Amino acid sequence: MKIKYHKIKSLLLFTLAIVNYHYVKAIDPKEIPLLAVGAGGIAYYTQPLFANAVYIEDRNWMVSNSGNRVYSKYFNWAPGQVNVNGYPQYLLPNQTFFVQPGQNMNYGAPLNAVIQRNKPFEGLVCLTWEGDADIRIVSAGSGFGFVSSLSGGNPSTGRIVNGKRYYRSGTNPNGYTIEIVSINSVTGLSKVRAWMPDPTDPNNKTLEPAVGQPEPIFHPTYLKVIEPFKDIRFMDWAATNASPVQDWADRRLPTHSFMEGVINRRGPTPGYFYNASWSKNITVSGILGPVVTVTDIGSQLNQTVTGYFLTPSTGGETVFARTLNSTTTISGGLIQANISNFLETNAGDKGTGVPYEYMVALGNLQNKNIWINIPHLATNDFIIKMAQLIKFGSDGVNPYTSPQANPVYPPLNPNLKVYVEYSNEIWSNTGPFCQGDWAEKEGTKMGLGTGTTAKARFNARRCAEIFDMFRDVFGSNEQLINVAAAFTGNPSYTEPYMSELTTFGQNFSPVVKPDVFAVTTYFSCRIEQWANDQGPAYYNDLSEANVNRTIDEFKRRMLSFQFGAGSFDANDIGGFGIRNRDIAKRYNLPVVAYEGGPSIYTDKLDSPGQNKENLTNLMCLMNRHSRFADIYNIHLNQARSIGLRMHSAFVDVSGWGKYGQWGHMEAIHQEISTATGTAVKMKFLFDFQDENRNINHIYDSTGTRPKFVTNEQLTLAKENQPYDIVLSITGGDGIISKKVISAIEAPGVTFDPNTLRFRGTPTQAGLYYYFVRIVDSDGDPDYRTFTLRVLPKVQNALYVWEDFGTQARDMSNANTGMVKTINGMLSVSGFRLPWEVQGGANNFMISVTSPLSYPNLSTSGVAYGVGGSASRTAYRQFRISDFDYLISAKNSNVIGQPQTQMWISAVINRDPSSSNGFILASGTQTIGYVNDEHNFRIRVLDNGLWGLEVRDSNAKVYTITTCTGPSANSMIAQNVLLLVAVKFGVSNDTLEMYVNPVCLGGIKEPTPNARFITSGQRKMEFTTISYFGNNGSGSFSGSNTLLGTNTFVGTAASRVRIDDIRIGDSYKAVTPSLDNSAPNAPANLTLSGFSFTTANISWNAASDNVGVAGYDIYDGNNLVRSSLSTVTSITLTGLIPGQTYILSVKARDCADNLSVASNTVTVNTNMDSAPPSDPGTLSVVAVEGTSATLSWLAATDNVAVSNYVIYQNGNPVVTTSGLSFLVGGLNQTSTYNFFVKAVDAAGNYSTGSSNTVTVTTKDITAPSQPTHLAGNTVPGFLFHLSWSPSTDNVGVAAYNVFLNNNSLGTTVGTTFTVLGLTQGINNQIRVRSIDVNGNNSLFSTALGVYLPIIDLVPPTLTGVLSVSAIKSKSAVLSWPMGTDNIEVIGYRVKLNTNVVATVGMRVYTLTGLSPLTNYTAAVVALDGGGNESQAISVNFTTIDNTAPSIPQGMQLVTVGGSFAKISWNASTDDVGVSGYKIWKDGGAVATTTSTNFTLKGLESLGVYTVTTSAFDASGNESGASAALIINTLDTIAPDAPQNLKVIARTSSSIKIGWDATTIMGSVSAYEVYKDSVLVEEVNSEEHISFNLTIGNVYSFYVVAKDQAGNKSQPSAVLQSMVADQIKPTLTGTLLATYVNDTTVQLSWQAATDNGPIKHYVIYSGFDTLAVVTSTSVIISSLTPTTTYNFLVKAVDLADNQSGFISIEYRPMKEKVILSGEIAVLQLSDNTLSLSWTAAVGNLKHYEVYNEKTLISTLTGTKTTVAGITANTLYKFKLVALSVDMVASDTLYKEYTATALATSGFDKNNVSLFPNPATNLLFLENTTASSVYKVYDVQGLVVISGATLERQTLIDINSLSQGMYMVVVQSGDRVQKMNFIKQ
What we know:
This protein is mainly beta. It has 14 helices and 112 strands. Strands 3, 4, 5, 6, 7, 8, 9, 10 and 11 form a nine-stranded antiparallel β-sheet that branches. An eight-stranded parallel β-barrel has the order 2-12-19-20-21-22-23-24, surrounded by five helices. It has a five-stranded antiparallel β-sheet with strand order 1-70-69-66-67, with no helix packed on it. Helix 5 (435-445) packs across helix 6 (451-474). It is elongated and about 180 Å long.
C-alpha cells in the first residue's frame, strides 16, 4: 500500500490540518495541443526532408559492375569496402557506387493530377565530399548540367581532393543519381553531400553552409510544412516496426551517410517474416537469352528452395512458381528463387532509423515536443542511454551523463516534453509488426497467460519499466509524458494492458503511471469498398461529377455514423469511439491520438490482374478535392465531441497510391496557405487548429456548459407538408454562437443556425443530417448531429403512431433507418424506425379520456393513463429474424413508476388483394386476417442494472381471432389496431392487450389468458424495447413464471426492460396490390360567412373504395390547410383583409390518393383602413444585463390588432403579436428608450404610441474567482481563513463563505473566522465573491480542513520494530499493525528521540544517516485524537556502502622513457578516503594513499591509458577517473651493429663493414672506434682506416646512434692487421672432458702467431660446430654411444689458418644413483657418525664434504667425523662417483653439534645398559621426578615417558636398528646418552 498524503491530528492543541489533494502530472490535459504529426519515413524516392539530398535514401550504396546496376537495399559490396559511417573506401575494377537520393516520386498516383514532385530539386545543386575521389551527378532527360563557372576550376570528371561540383537542373528533373566513379583507397571517402537548391533563390543558391558555419540538417521547406504542429512523433523516423535494434551499438550515428536503411548485417528480428517473398538472384547460363529453358537451378543455391519468381524483361506481372522443370520458360527475364531459410538469414536486414540526435535537433529547432518510440528489443542499457541522450545530449556516439557546457549534440530543451512510447502497435501480429508476436511469446514464457492476454500484460510491464528508467534519468516526470497505447479496435487487448500497467506500476516507488491514453483516429467509412461495389462503370469514371458523388456518399456515411459495414457503431465515432473514451475516463487519462487521418487503401481490391487502377485514382482524386476538408472536419469534430484532445496526423508528407493516401501532403512544396492550394488535408488541419484554438475541450468547462435539449432524432417530416421546429438548448454563459459543421440538407427545408430553426416544406423523402456545434462566451462547446427523416407519400404502408398524437408515420423505407445501438444492429432483412415514447413534466401525452386519437376508438372503460412522471426515448424494431437481439436503451431516464400506465400501439393494414392477410410495408410477408388466429407475445425483460441478478419474465402470449365480434364480413375492408397497455403497480405489474378493428369501437380482447407458444405457423411476436427500470432497489421474486391470467410477479421497485417489436418469420411472400383509386370529389362547397381575416366553409362528405382519411383546402392551386380529420366543415383563419380567395376542397384517402377538386367559392375579405388605437401603458417588467422585458396594455381596432412594433431609441427593432416581449442584444450598464405602436392585419399603424420608458441594463459580469485560500487553526475549533481578492468590472461588494456547501455568511474583507467544523471529516471551505449588482463569481477551489475527533484513549503498539536494508545513509524500518478504540490513523517515527516522520504505512525508510554510526529508532502509533501509543524501538549501526567521489583533475606531471608521474585532486568520502588504485590499460597496477604516483617500468614510446579510483576503509570503490593518455619518450637505443667484418685490406689500410641496424625508427649515424678512439662518424655501413702499420694489431668496434641521440652498445670488437702471410701455429693435445651423456668440454693450448689470433674453428668431421675466441668450448646435443672425431684450427687477423689438432670421443659414461638422506648421530661432544643408503650402480667411491672441504673418501656407507665443536653448524654433502668418474646427484645435510656432557647431573648419576641393546634398555639411578625422551638420528622423539625411582625400564623392541640418543631431564638438569639398537 502506498499513501500519497497523510493526516496529522493533535487533540491537545485542537489543531486542524489543511489537506491539499493534488497529483502533479507531467502535463496538464489543458496544455495538450490540438494537433501533432507523424514524421514520414525516410525511404527510397521519398520527400526531401533534409538539406542534404544524399541523406534521403534507405537502400545504402548500390553497385554497378561493368555497367550492370544492382538495385538492392542489401549489402552488395566487398568486406571493408564501406566504413562504419557508410562511406565507400575503395572500388573494385570496373565498379562504381551510386545512390538515388530522394526525388519525391509517387507510387500509383493518377496521372491526370500528378503534382510536380521534383520541383524541390529544380535549380542549383552543390555536390561536395571529403577525400580523393571522382563523384558526379548523372541524369537522364531534362536532368542536371555541370556548372563549371561555380565549381572553382574543378573539372567535371576526374578525381578531386575534397571536391566540389555544381550542377543546375532542367525543369522537373527525373531519374538522377549520384555516382562514385573513382576513389583513392589511401584517403577513402567521407561526408558526401548533395546540397539542394535554396528555395529562396533555387537557380543561384544552394543550402550549402557558409565557411565556418554548421551544416544545416533539415530542408527549410519541410520545416515550414510542420511548423504549425506542436508535437511530432518519430515512429517512422525510428523505423520502429520490426526494428532489429537491441544494443546501443546497433543504432545509427549522426555521422552516417544515410538517414535510414540497414547499417549492419545481423540476425533476424524475432518474429519478423515480412520479407517472406524476398528472393535472391540466381545466375543461370544464358538467362538473358531470348528463351531459356530451366531444368535445375536449385543446386546453385545450396539452400532449400520453396518457389521461384519469373519476371519477364518485356514487362508484365511477376509469376510465382513452386517448381521449375523443362517446361518452364521465360523470355529474356530474371529468375529468382524464394529460399525458405533465407528468412532466418536476411530478415534482420531492417533499417535502424534516423539518429536520435536529429530528432532532438528538430524538436529544439521548432520548439516541438517530441514523441519517441523505444525499439521493442531494446536492452535496459539502451533505454537508459536514450534517456540520457535526450536529457544531456551526446558526443555523436555515446550520451553524456551530466549537463555539458558545449555538447556536440545538444539535449532537448528542458521546456519541451518527451512522449515515451514502447515500440508501436505491439497488439499487432507478424510481418512488419513482428514485435507483437515477440511480445506474446515473451509474455507466455513469463507466465502472463497466452495469446492476446500474454502480449498485453508483457507490454504493460515493459512500459512501466521504461517509464521508470526514463524518470530515473530525468530526475522526475515533469518533462516526460508516459504513453499508454491502446488497441483502438479491440478491448480484449486494451483492457488487460491497462489493468496490468496500473497494477504493475504500483511496484515502483514512486508509483509509475501513464499520462495519456493513446488511440488511433483513422476514418474511411469503407468508402473504397462502396466505390468498388458500384462496379467498373462507376470507378472508371474520374470526372469531377463522379468525384463529387463519391464525396457525397462519404459525407452521408460520416454524418449517419455508418463507419464500417453501413450500420451505426458508437465505437467508431471519431475513429476511437465510446468504448475507448470510457476506458480512458475510467483511468482518468486524457485521450490523444498517436496516429490518425484518412485510412483509405485499395491494394486488396486493386491487386495484380484486376485492372482497378482507376479505383485507386478515384480515391486519390477524392483526397485532393477541396471538399475533402468537409469530410475531415466532420471526423475531427466528432472526435472532439466525445473527448479527443489531440489528433496526430499520419503522416506529414508521403506519396499516394493503392497502399494508402497517408501523406497529408504529397510533396513538401505544395501550396498550403491558399484555398486553391493542392495540399487540402494539411491546410484543413491548420484551419481547424485556428478555428478551435479558443474552443474548450468538453471536459474543461469554465462555467456552465451549454447543452442541446432537443433529441438527435427530430420530429418526422412528410413530403410536401409544412415543417417547423426550433432546437432547444440549455445552460451556457453569455452569448452562444452556433455553427453548422456540416450538413446534408433536406430540399425545401432551411436551417437557420442563428435561431436554430428548421422551416419549410420538404420536397423529397429521405434522411438528412445536420452536425451542429454551439459555443458559449467562455468557449464551452456542445456538439450534436440531428437527423431529419422526411417520409414519402406511399400507398398501403404500415403506420406507427409514435408520439401518441394523430399523425401517422410512414415506415416503408425504414430499412435505411437511424437506429443507434451500443451492441450492434439487427439483420438488414428487417426494417427499423425510431419510436419515441413521449412524456411531459407531469404526465404522459395520453389522457384519461382519450389515450389514442383513432377514429371510432373507444375512450371509456378500462383505466387508461392515470398520470406519471419521467419518460424516455427508446427504439423499437420490426424485423424478420430468428435472432433475439436486445437493443440497449438510449438514455437513462426512468419509466414505469408505480401507478402509471404506458400505451403502445401499431396499425396493420389489410392487403386489399387478399381476403386472408395483412401486408407489411416491405410487401414481402403477410399475416392471416379473416377468421385467423394470431399469436401475440409480450415479454418483460430485466435490464440487469446496478449489478443485480437478471430476472426476465416469461412470455405472455395472446391468441386473437381477427374476426372477433359481430359483422365479421364487414371487417374485411378494415385495419387491425393492436394496443398494449403496460400497467406499473405497487405490488405487481400487469400487461393487457386490445385488438381494435375500426368498426368495433375498441373492445378489449375477450380472453386475455396467457399461454406459451412452442410452435405454430403464423405467430407475431410483439415486444417493446429496452427500458431502464424504476430505481434499481427491487428484484423479481417467486419462481419467475406467470401467475394468473395476465400478470407477472414483481415488486413496487421492479426493474423493467421491454425488448423489441418482432414479426415472426413463417409468412409466405406476396406481391402487394396498391390502392390507386382516388376518392370521389367533395360536393356542395358552401361559404357561410366571412370577416376581415376569417371564412366559414362546409361541404358534403366524399366516398372512397377503402376510406377517406381527410380533406385538403386549396386557394387556387396553393394548399392552405390539410387535415387527417373526416369532418366536413372548417373555419379558415389568418386571412388578409381586402384579399380575394378562390377556395376548393379535395378528399384524400389512406394511400394519399387525392380526389379532383370540389366546386369553388370566392371570398373577398373586407378592406380595413382604420388604424388601431395607441397601446396602453408601457411598463418595464424586468431588466437584465443584455435584455429588458416590456409589457403594455392592448390597443383596440375595428377588426383586430395583429401586431405591436417596439421602438428602441426611436428605431423599430422587433414586431410581436403579444402584449409583452423580451428585447435582447443590449449592452450591459447602458441606457435605452422604448415605446410601442400597434398595427392591424391591413397594415394600419396607430397614430400615436405608448408612453416612453427608459431602461438602464444591469451589470451581469460576475467577479473573478477568489483564489489562494489559506488559513490557520486556533483553539476552540476555529479556523482563520484568508484569500486573494477578486476583481470586477464595477466593484466587489462582499464575499460569501461556504462550509460543506452551506453558507456561513458574508464579509467585505478577505478574511473570515470559520465556525462549525465537523470532527473526523475533511471539511470543504469555498468562497465566492459578489459584486455591487449581486453577480456571484464562480466558487474558489475548495480548501480541505480536517478536524480531529476528540479521543483520549491512546492506541496500542506491540511487537518487534524491525530494521532491514541497512546502508551507509539509510535503513528501512517496519513494524506490526497498531490497534485503537477508534482507528489508528498513522505512525510517528523517531530517531534518537527526534521525530523524523509521520506516516500512514507500516514501513519507513530512514535517510540522511551517517555511516558507521549507532542509532536508536522508535515508532509510536497515532489515533485521530492525537494520542500516541507506547513506543517500540530498535538499535542498529549503519554500514559504509557509499563509495568515495571519482578522482578529478588527472594530469601528467612528468614523463620519461620508462616512467611517468601523475597527480590528481583528492576525492571525498562520507567517512574518509583510504587510498587510490592506479589502473593502467584497464588493469590495477598499484595503490597509494597519496594524490600522485610514479608509474615505472614503462616501455619507451609506449601509449598507456591511466585512470585512478578512490577507495575507503570499507572497501567501497569509486568509479574510474577520466582517462589520462600517456606517451612515453624514446629512450630505446638501437641494437648494437652486428657482423663486424673485414671487407678488404692492403699493406696500409683496412676496410671494415657491418650489417645495418634499426629499432623504433631509422639509425641516423654510426660511430667507428679504432683502438677505443672515435675515428669517424659515417652514415653508411662501411669504414676504411688508412696509414696502418704492418704487424700491428688494430681493434675496431662500431656504435649505432638514432635521431633521439640514443646510442647502442658497441659492436663486438674486430681485431685485424694489414695484409699478413704468416700462418698461426697450433700444437699440443686436444682434451675432451665429460659433462653429461650428451655434452662434452673440449680444451686446448693457445696458438702462436706474429699477431693476435682472431678465433678458433671447431669441427666434427667436415661440419663446423663452433667459432670461439677462447681455448675451450662446450659441445652439446651429442648422441650417446656415438663416436665423434673433433678437430680444432686457429685463424689470425689476416685469416691465415693453422693446422688441425684432433681427438676421438665417445660420450657414454656410467653414472651411479644416490638417494635418500644423510643420517647424523652425535657420538660424543666432539664426534659425529654419518650414514646413508648405498648408491646403485658401478661405484668407485664416496666423497664426503663439509661445505667445500673434502673430509672423507670411502666405499662404505658410514663414516665418523672427529674434532667437532659444540654449538657449531656443519654443512655436509655426499657425492658418489662411478667407475667412469661420473658424479651422482649430491645429498646435503646441516647439523648443529651440542654438548653431551651432563648439566646438573654427575655423570655417574644416571647410566644405561645394555649398550648395544636388543629389546630392553635400563636406566639406573633415576628419580621419580624426571622425564626421558629417546631421539633418532633425524632428531625426532620416538619414545618418551616418566622415570621411576632408582631404575627405569624402556621397551625399545619397536625401534629399528641404528643409533639413538636418550635425554633425561629433571627440572633444569639434563643428561644425554647414546645407545645402539641391534
